[in-house]
Design brief:
- By secondary structure, the protein is mainly α.
- Helices cover 50% and strands 9% of the residues.
- The strands form three sheets. Strands 1-2 form a two-stranded antiparallel ribbon.
- Keywords: ATP-binding, Nucleotide-binding, Transferase.
- One of its GO terms (biological process) is cobalamin metabolic process.
């Protein structure tokens, strides 16, 4: 959770910023970290703080909540989603796919999703909200990418199973994690504690991952497994 949360005693929230390149064949990260750490922390903070040893953690607004709180459940799912996309990206890089820069950008945006979730509106000050507000532009980007993939893909006439090579299968796995993340974020958005565009982004992201999985399989010439009713 450290990427999403500022612990008041340490001020170690990391806000991720991205520069988006269209040079996909690289394993270099496109995200840079801007740290809001104190001078003391910059001398070499330890990765462990022991502040969560009793089963509580802090939101960006400074609230102490139990680790099973719905906020931290959503943050964990979002973090897992980014990890799943990172794994899929590695497989796609191995095959020379040209859309990996999109996966880089998505991972950066998921950091912003987490920052917004970690800032419950009910306890947020204006300074919190201004730093973690989620923009709608990434949703439009996903829709553009989906439409571009779809123009090249054959029509979907059957149910397909996660398959089509390692990259495709990994993207399908990321899609299922995305659906779980969306389910955990939905009640937070409905309660007014997070921006509605966060839920919209996750909803569109699962569509993107499904389409990207099909696109990866097509580009690799891999056969997707078609659902057949067992006899």
């Amino acid at each position: 959770m450290a990427s999403f949360i500022i612990k008041p005693a340490h001020l170690r929230c990391v806000v991720r910023t991205c520069r988006f390149l269209r040079e996909p064949q690289t394993r270099n990260t496109l995200c840079s970290s801007r740290s809001y750490a104190t001078e003391e922390d910059n001398r070499g903070p330890k990765i462990y703080t022991k502040t969560g040893d009793k089963g509580f953690s802090s939101t960006f607004t400074g609230e102490r909540r139990p680790k099973e709180d719905h906020i931290f459940e959503a943050l964990g799912n979002t973090d897992e989603l980014s990890s799943a996309i990172g794994l899929a990206r590695e497989f796609c890089l191995d095959k020379g796919h040209t859309f990996t820069y999109q996966l880089d950008k998505i991972q950066c945006i998921l950091q912003d999703v987490g920052s917004n979730i970690a800032t419950p509106q009910s306890s947020a000050r204006e300074s919190h909200i201004s730093r973690t507000k989620f923009a709608a532009q990434p949703i439009s980007d996903l829709e553009t990418w989906i439409d571009t993939f779809t123009e090249e893909l054959p029509p979907l006439t059957n149910f397909i199973l996660p398959s089509g090579g390692k990259g495709s299968a990994a993207l399908h796995l990321a899609r299922t994690v995305c659906r779980r993340a969306e389910r955990s974020v939905a009640p937070i958005v409905r309660s007014g504690e997070a921006d509605p565009d966060v839920a919209k982004f996750l909803n569109r992201l699962s569509d993107y991952l499904f389409t990207a999985a099909r696109y990866a399989a097509m580009k690799e010439g891999s056969v997707e497994t078609i659902y057949k009713r067992p006899e």
